[in-house]
Amino acid sequence: MLQWPWFRAAFAGAAVTVGIALAGPLQAADAPATIPEPPPEIIVTTPRGSASGGIEPLLELSPSELDSYGADSLSDLVDALRPLTRSSRGDQAAVVLINGHLAGQTEFDNLPREAIERVEVLPESVALQYGFSENRRVLNFVLREHYSAVPLRATESGATEGGGQAIAADASRVQLNDEARITLLASYKDNAFLSDSDRGIDVPDSSYYTLLPDTTDTKVAATVSRSILGVSSSFEASYEVMSTRSLQGLADVSSAAGEIEQPLDESSAVRTSRIAMQFTGQLHDFVWGTTVYYMHVASRSTSDLGIDSAGDLSIDRTESAFNIGNLQISVSGPAASLPAGPVIANFKFGLQYQGFDTRDSEPGAPLTASNLVRTVRSANVNASVPIAKRERGILPALGELSGTFSASLDSVSDFGNLFSESVGLDWHPIKKLHLDAIYTDHRTAPTVQQLRAPPIYTTNVETFDYITQQTVYLTEITGGNEVLSPTDSRQGSFGVSIRPFAGKTEFLAHYEENRISNAIGALPPTDAAVESAFPERFVRDADGTLISIDDRWVNLERERVNDVKWGVNVWIPIGESPAMAMANRIEFSLFDTWYLNDVTLIRPGIPELNLLDGAPSDVSGGQPRHKIEFHTLYHRDGLGVLLAVAWRSPTVVGTGDPAAPDPIYFSSLGTADLRVFLDLGHLPWTRGASWAQGARAALAVTNLFDRRQTVHDADGATPTAFDPGFLDPLGRVLALTVRKVF
Length: 742
Prior knowledge:
Blueprint: H1 6-30, E1 59-61, H2 63-67, H3 74-80, H4 82-85, E2 95-98, E3 101-102, H5 105-110, E4 116-122, H6 125-128, E5 138-143, E6 146-149, E7 151-159, E8 166-177, E9 180-191, E10 194-195, E11 210-212, E12 214-228, E13 231-250, E14 263-283, E15 286-307, E16 313-338, E17 341-361, E18 368-389, E19 400-412, E20 416-430, E21 433-444, H7 448-452, E22 456-465, E23 470-478, E24 487-501, E25 505-521, H8 528-533, E26 538-540, E27 546-550, E28 554-573, E29 585-601, E30 609-610, E31 626-636, E32 639-648, E33 651-655, E34 662-666, E35 669-679, E36 695-702, E37 711-713, H9 724-727, E38 733-741
Parallel strand pairs: 2-5, 23-27
Antiparallel strand pairs: 1-4, 2-3, 4-5, 6-8, 7-8, 7-38, 8-9, 9-12, 10-11, 12-13, 13-14, 14-15, 15-16, 16-17, 17-18, 18-19, 19-20, 20-21, 21-24, 22-23, 24-25, 25-28, 26-27, 28-29, 29-30, 29-31, 31-32, 32-35, 33-34, 34-37, 35-36, 36-38
């Protein structure tokens, strides 16, 4: 049963009480004491906040349409709008702007949905103007000119099977006055740990093994933005502390004198400080921008390894400090004029400093310390070159056709010069039809953490050994690898979109080929090919039982993935909305990712791993041939229902002797997530009540039907490593959220 302890209810109540007390004096200075009515339905068409450079938005969303998603913050709204921001050129997340400027991460997290006047969904060509490749759509959030509020939110969740309780609360202060903006945010999250015994997993000492760690996360953040001498300026700062604690079984008492029962703890604490400044202005037809950024991340971890021969607890301790400073300058605008139109280009220059210090204290070994300093000088140019333009009479039979290209050079202090490039075509033969093609060749150096992160030893990690077909509890080593090489990623895609038809309906499809050389990743699941490629990474005892894996980063020789992504977004209005209410409609999207090829070559001379045909990909089996996503929204007069369904096709993985493998069958899996919300200020029976304005209650159910993947071998038995509790520890989760904007 899901429990709601009195002290958690008291915590939420205290947060609301403190927030109301805070709201009072703040509102007294900035706004009338009475609760304001919801803003009227007005679509502003002035240039304020424009990001398109004259390019018509694909879609504009009004305040009523935005409210119908039931989103609390900008980050929630970006997730809700994902079906509308998919590109026919790739599956990357949209570029996010605020009032036509690149969104700072802190302001993006701090601003509530109610501060948004409208949202523009802009085509991929606009991404070029901000220094991104032309394979991502752009979301521009236009803020209200005047807005003052104190949003408060409290959430409690837990699994219906028991355990997994979590609480979260946040309070913020938002003040908008034309281009002057101030936001403050404080948030707290706590997730209780979940043990093997909570899910009935039949292993010795199951109450001393953690499926999910105990986690706390506290954050404070602030932003200040204003226009200074015609230059848009912003400053943001944040500080976050995250700590985790888990149990990794009991110490092996056979090596100690006497009988003891010593739990093995693993804990970590990460403190992140971040500041950033951004300046944007206009010089003639060009927009320039400067960003200065600094972040400091300090982490500390301890891992209990067991009892040593002297009867003492053996502990591995690591510390690290990561510092990064970045200066970036960009200029965008018409670089040249051609008969079909101007060449829009973005020039970007950057200088970055990274410093990574580590200290590692392994049992029985002297303290080791390392330091890596990296500097990166970068230059990048993106451009869109018009070729045909029907409106100008330039090759009118072609409609609108343009070419795109980008080139970048990163001079990395420890890896030399890394060159990347892309070329593409963007074609609108008729207004509603869009065709595109793009090829990219991108070279990246491994991060300083991938190179120098200190080794962390975690004991009693549950793992399935595909060679011996056993579930084993072993010691896993994670951390950096100093001999990693840069990655070369080559991607080609062809896309088509048809929009809009039947109202706001849109069809999208794209084919993509990916070829990655020296891909950086963790070791694939343990099978014969993986162990033969990295024999030094695996330790077995005299009986052949796997007892240790060195899972630090490695370079994989080559990866090849081909897939087709296609689907449709549909928007159907229903009835007439009352005055001041939100847009009533049904909205849904259906997308399928069809994997045609997924092959990994670990090292030369080793057989390739075909993840679609017998090779394991992760704990869920091989690579499914199909992944289907379905999202739907029903909204009417303040009541919203959102349903998200995900389905993956079944896979079969071979175990044991590669010449005559024994199959393990992984079932298909379909899960559904449901969210129901009530905007009390818009419900017919509470619309006129002042207390209901800005109030929302939401109930979310994750994994609505409590579905888990089933796994079995040829005899119908399920290996312990694939127990449902391991694959999905929480199962069905209920979460209740109460939110009020003062």
